[in-house]
UniProtKB/TrEMBL annotation:
Protein name: Pro-sigmaK processing inhibitor BofA
Alphabetical UniProt keywords: Membrane, Transmembrane, Transmembrane helix
UniProt-listed Pfam families: BofA
InterPro entries listed in its UniProt record: BofA (IPR010001)
TM spans (from-to): 6-21, 33-51, 63-82
Amino acid sequence: MKIVLTGILVVSLLLLLYIAVSRRLGFAWLTRLGLHIVLAALGIYVVNFSGLMTEVYIPLNPATIATVLVLGLPGVGLLLGLKLTMI
């Protein structure tokens, strides 16, 4: 089983490298990804330290940043809603 999973990983890596080289994606997507990560962290930071909702604190960790990264600012609302219902 371990050999099969390693084979799938290697084939996937080779296909990703082929796509990156053949389409000449460049590094513009890394800049955009970095900008989105910074904006997601900034959105969570603003909610935490704005003082509007003092009883709610959303931790800055990879899971929360990834949620906001994928969902955008509605992801911050989702995290707030989850935090308020779990308290």
